[in-house]
From TrEMBL:
The protein's name: ABC transporter ATP-binding protein
MF (Gene Ontology): ATP binding; ATP hydrolysis activity
Domain ABC transporter, residue spans: 5-230
Pfam families: ABC_tran
SMART domains linked: AAA
Source organism: Psychrobacillus vulpis
Keywords: ATP-binding, Nucleotide-binding, Transport
Amino acid sequence: MENVIELKNVTKKFKDFSVKNIDLQVQQGFVTGFIGANGAGKSTTIKMMMNLLKPDSGEIKLFGLDYKNHEKAIKERIGFVYDGNVFFEGMNLKDIKRIVAPAYKHWDDTLFYQYVEQFELPLNKAMKTFSKGMQMKASLAIALSHHAELIIMDEPTAGLDPIFRRELLALLQELMIEGNRTIFFSTHITTDLDRIADYISFMQSGELVFNQSIHDVAENYALVKGGLDLLDRDTEKAFVHVHRASTGFEALTDNIKAVQNTFGDSVVIERASLDDIMYYFKGGIHHV
């Protein structure tokens, strides 16, 4: 089966915010990076994937199953790692394992102790003494110990120091070598994804802007720089958003061919980073 996660026309309304008509497919065996500014709707979408929030409308399936009839079977196959301590603060890792292990049919004690050792986690210290990075590792050790096929991570690198972030990303890369595991990874630190993501899903203001392979993102999106005299109502149609300055303009395009046809050699075309894409979709800076 190709898609591990499928969202069809999923909507969730709150008083001052809504996630609207999300159509998203997450492919098996790949790392999908879920990007967007804080408040774009990433956590709401993940909570719906985890059945922690119910959508107002639309359909959510994991492994081709719905939560209504298959909640236990789905949760057996998911590991959830998120920003913050999900465990009781006064408890140590040994106690937590004793509570968590019986909940999973495929719990593997040997694997758990292997990860505890690899991650250098103390078994007898209270969770509240753990650093943020250690809490993240504890969460990951538990997810991996029940052979989770899908690992969902909500902002796992936020607040981690650069060395630990790099370590975590290397570990995730290692986990993907077997090829049967899927990672869905939300973040606003886009440089992390350049290293490990196969697909990028981009949310803004509660809507999914695109879900593309990282290769397609690089092929489709570019920064374009040129003189202000080149801009008029027709030529601007080639851009997502234009940023004007006294020295010229810089703009984001999602259609490099159209830019080449319109402007020829009179503009400079450069690769757009994920940060550039997020910035320009948000409207860039209107005042200079």
